[in-house]
Amino acid sequence: MSLRIGKIWDSEFPWDVRVEKVCAALTEAGHTVDLACRNRDHQPHTESWQGITIHRMPTWPTLPRRAERISSFPAFINPRWYRHVLATFRRCEVDVILCRDLPLAPLALHVGQQLNRPVVVDVAEHYAGLLRDLYNRHDFRLYNLLIRNPLLAALVERLTLPAADHVLVVVEESGARLIDLGVDPDRITVVSNTPLPQRLAMMADMPRPERHDADPLRLVYLGKVEHSRGVGTVLETLKLRRDRGADPVHLDVFGDGASLAHHQATVDHDGLADVVTFHGHQPYDDVLRRLPAFDAGLIPHHATDHWNYTIQNKLFDYMAAGLPVVVSSMPPAERIVTTCGSGLVFEDRNPVALSHAMDQLADPEARRRMGRAGRGAVESTYNWGQDASRLVRAIERVAAQAGLPAAPTQHQGGSKPVAR
Predict the structure, then answer these.
(1) Which residues contact 134 (CB under 8 A, 6 or more apart)?
(2) Sheet of 325-328: strands edge to edge?
(3) Containing H/E element for 344?
(4) Quick check: helix, strand or coil at residue 152?
(5) Averaged pLDDT, 169-184
(6) Are 373 and 342 in contact (CB under 8 A)?
(7) Nearest CA-CA partner of 34 in 17, 16, 56
(8) How far apart are CA 155 and CA 166, in angstroms?
(9) What is the CATH number of domain 4-194+384-401?
(10) How far apart are the first and last CA of the chain?
């Protein structure tokens, strides 16, 4: 028999790349997914979308829009969320509850107890580490001390995750950290942020523009523009290279975020407008189609607890596009890039080290070699086909252990071992 899976997502949907991939993997395996999510934009309460059913939080028409947004804040103590999730999953008669990330995980466990259903928590990032990074952002507000407190998040994590029936993590380093918190290693499965097969096929067919030796090295950064993501380090590096008379390097930034205006002001102040282009937010697939125009992809994130226990989607997107990748010294990204030979690693927040990596990229043959290695690693190992298999088997195993038999699927492979 197929399973009915109740998934909890703490924001609007569509869209989130991991939520979409997880839901698609489960439905393709023959299971049914009911997604409970937020509804700040007053969208329809129920909607069918690509094989899943979206159950958005009921809105209160007489409530002012600002009050509606505040009262629907995703917190496990929020009674609106509890009523929404419990009523939805009870009505849908779900078999397994799958909760994305920490803010609603205690609520998911409580609903699981009420309905006598197993709960799986998808730990896509180190949430307490993320909140600690928030305290260094330019848009920090005092109310974050109450609603986004990293000490409270760490306590909730320590009390919640060992009680879950299973935990999904995106990298082995995250699994090892949770084992130290008391999570049973047999209840951990690595399901990474790897690209879909159709994305690999799309990138294989993308034409590559002709490059000339006289052209400056072109680097691309794709993603949110926030303090801890390290774009500031890249700008420092470009200024350093200009001051030293080094070969020119051009940076293209696709994305927006809390630090975008700050970085734009830095570019203007330091006279870097001719070597830095901010494109703002662009449709993700459109940006992916432009990747072949660049010489290398950048992931300059600060090596904080947040980034040391997760992995960026763009790492595998760069590799799938055949671009060498330059990453800061975050253990998961460093491990993958070094093992695959798909790029270079520089010391976190060190403009001199990043400039040295840029010098190494000047060799076209070195770039081609690293690009081929990255593409090959994605085709053989770091792809969603592998991760979807582990995801489906983990969910089915949890259901079977709870006495809810599911028909075997066509997915192959077991759990990926967690480094300890």
Answers:
(1) 140, 144, 148, 150
(2) 276-280, 249-254, 217-222, 296-299, 325-328, 343-346
(3) strand 343-346
(4) helix
(5) 98
(6) yes
(7) 56
(8) 19
(9) 3.40.50.2000
(10) 35
Map tokens 């939520």 to a residue: 19
Helix ranges (H only) for 93-149 are 105-115, 127-134, 144-147
Report pLDDT for 140: 58
- Side chain identity, residue 167: V
Residue 24 in tokens = 């698609």
Q: How many CA atoms lie within 13 A of 230 on its CB side?
A: 25
Environment class of 85 (CB within 10 Å of its CB; exposed 0-12, middle 13-18, buried 19+) = buried
Angle at 399 between CA 397 and CA 404, to 5 degrees: 130
User: In degrees rounded to 5, what are phi and psi of residue 404?
Assistant: -115, 85
d(CA 229, CA 306): 10
What is the pLDDT at residue 206?
Answer: 75
Single-letter amino acid code for the residue at 142:
L
Q: How confident is the model at residue 142, as a pLDDT?
A: 63
Query: What are 83-105's pLDDT values in tens digits?
Result: 999 999 999 999 999 999 999 99
Residue 197 has pLDDT above 90, yes or no: no
CATH number for the region 198-380 comes to 3.40.50.2000
Q: Do domains 4-194+384-401 and 198-380 have the same CATH topology?
A: yes
The arithmetic mean of pLDDT across residues 357-383, rounded, is 96
What is the overall mean pLDDT for the chain?
92
What is 231-245 written as a DSSP string?
Answer: HHHHHHHHHHHHHHT
Phi, psi of 264 (to 5 degrees): -60, -40
* DSSP bridge partners of 356: none
Closest CA to 277 of 296, 254, 300, 298: 254
Q: How many helices (H) and strands (E) does the chain have?
A: 18, 14
User: Domain residues of the chain, as ranges?
Assistant: 4-194+384-401, 198-380
